[in-house]
Design brief:
The complex is a heterodimer of chains A (about 280) and B (about 210). Chain A is mainly alpha-helical and about 280 residues long. Chain A has 13 helices and 2 strands. The chains are: A mainly alpha (about 280), B alpha/beta (about 210).
Amino acid sequence: MKNLYLIAFLDLKESIRAKWFLVYSLVFGGLIALFFIAGVTESQVMGFSGLSRLLLMYIQITIVILPIFILITTVRSISGDRDNHILEYMLSFPISLKQYYWGKILGRFVTVYLPVLFAMIVAIIYGSIKGASIPWDIFFLYTGLLFAMSSVFLGIAFFISSFVKSSEVALGIAFFIWILLLAFIDIAMISLMMSQRFNEELIIFIAMINPMEIFRVAAISLFDPELTVMGPVAFYILDLMSQTTFVVLSILYPVSLGILFSFLGFKIFQKRDLV
Amino acid sequence: MIKVNNLTKKFGEHISLDNINCEFKKNDYIALMGANGAGKTTLIRSILGYYHPDNGGVLINGLDPIKERVKVLENISFVPQLPPPIKLSISELMQYVSVGANVDKQKIIHYANEMKLDIKTNMNKSFFKLSGGMKQKLLIAISLAKQNNIIIYDEPTANLDPKARDDFYRLLKQNEDEKVLLFVTHRLEEVEQIVNRQIYMDLGKIVSDEVIS
């Protein structure tokens, strides 16, 4: 285990020094700062106000940009090391492939998860200083959602990284997956299917297997489930099952998917030529 | 120590190693030579367990380097052709080597000093920001500090100036006893004081394997 923690620790240190990490932290920290400056906590739209509204806006933007951030920064972790011969040298030491691969995942998970969580904690602290009431239920739900979101996209990124030979191709695939989940399945396909009057079970099934749609619905599920606010798919899903069941599903499903993709990535990493 | 049996490795249609058979025993100091694309680096990478062979295999002290990579790599020191752009600082790289391969950091510093590389003042500097020569010296220092009985060098002197090359060969001479030293090189005259066997490869085959005095 010491080698796994060593690799995770060194990957974390290396990532923290990287420019992408600075941009990444500034984007999410900056979002929170921007919301406070813009007076989001003082405004009231559709019944959302104070820190609840701020956190809701934060998670809705995060659902869109966090996946692409994770994918493009992580997808090159193994394929990039293979490309520039770092893997050839680092794996010449008696470290098992299991320790190397899972150590990298652990290190990268901490790197991508902590800044988004930290930005939310800062919002809670600053909000409480300003005297706003703290929506703990929303805070804990979003902590879980961010964890699940980081897990699933990290898993997908490592899966891609394990079989792609060039980091340029890895980037292309990552971008395609993001567009597919965000725009095609979530917006274009669902809208098209609804306008074409496709079977509603099919539409809901496609929506439910898309982790980004799951996050979107879960993020709003603690609020009053009104059709006008949530959209038809979210409304249907929350009508189909209890809110608690859906929240548990929205965390367990993406985490399981993330573990599955990570595991598949490891199997490919183990079975293919290393360099 | 190293036994290569009927080893074939293909990349697509290209045969990089074509039914290679050879054995390297203790006190074999080998110059592995051949034109570009002859299969030298593929052979080395197969010995290190990086490639899954299409046929045959490699045994290091009776162990398969793919299935038993940790045990096998405990006995091998390796320096690649070009130092990779590792983003870790020198102290982090030393930590990786010291924890991962049980190498004494003081020994790395000792051999770095022998190579005229002052690493104590550069500990927090990223490895990839060092000059080509400094990187190569550090990798050589690590390989010597690892004190293994199989040493594999893939053209390690490419970035070294003549003085550093002399230091390197002097240290190698001091550390080669009871070992296997596999040296990929294009310049036999540089290593002829060290090696006692010369293997020449071409088009994925061993075309000559002779003992030299």
